[in-house]
Amino acid sequence: MSEEVSIRLPEATEAQALLTLMDQLQQESHTFSLVDADEPLSAAQEADQLVQIQQSTRHLLLVASVGPQLIGVCSVAPTPQGNVGELGVAVAKAYWHVGIGTALVDEALYWLETASDLQAIGLEVQTRNVPAVKLYQKLGFERTANPATTVIDASGQSVTAIEMVYQRHSAN
């Protein structure tokens, strides 16, 4: 890839671009879906959330961009367990398989180790998404003891998923 990719925190002024990217990602992948997709946010609401997230040690939102164009997103949000964050990552299809997802997750793990008060980051990954499972294993995620579950993907199909977790190493 000849273009320079930047991994960074999004600016509040990019709220509409981020919402547009999220819509695009949902259309391009059956493995990416938004929890609150039925209640879309306005650009102003998204901008407010971006400001709040940047002030949190329990929430993270990163974007990947080429120039001003947003091409990927990575989020960490606390789970009901309290000390574990849930990871979500997606990259625009035109940029698949060039290391952007790896860079986003790697940056989220660095944040966990250096700036967060969470103890771990977990995720649920569809077993058919073999590249993602291999990526998470390469970065230090381990499969939990919980049995595989069935989830409904973005197209409404039932698929098998497993839980994986990355434990923080530092004594932060």
UniProtKB/TrEMBL annotation:
The UniProt keywords, alphabetically, are: Transferase
| Organism superkingdom | Bacteria
Record's signal peptide:
none
Extract the InterPro entries matched here: Acyl_CoA_acyltransferase (IPR016181), GNAT_dom (IPR000182)
Q: Does the keyword Iron apply?
A: no
SUPFAM superfamilies (UniProt xref): Acyl-CoA N-acyltransferases (Nat)
Where the record annotates domain N-acetyltransferase, the positions are 5-169
The molecular function GO annotations come to: acyltransferase activity, transferring groups other than amino-acyl groups
Q: What is this protein called?
A: Acetyltransferase, GNAT family
What is the organism of origin for this protein?
Levilactobacillus brevis (strain ATCC 367 / BCRC 12310 / CIP 105137 / JCM 1170 / LMG 11437 / NCIMB 947 / NCTC 947)
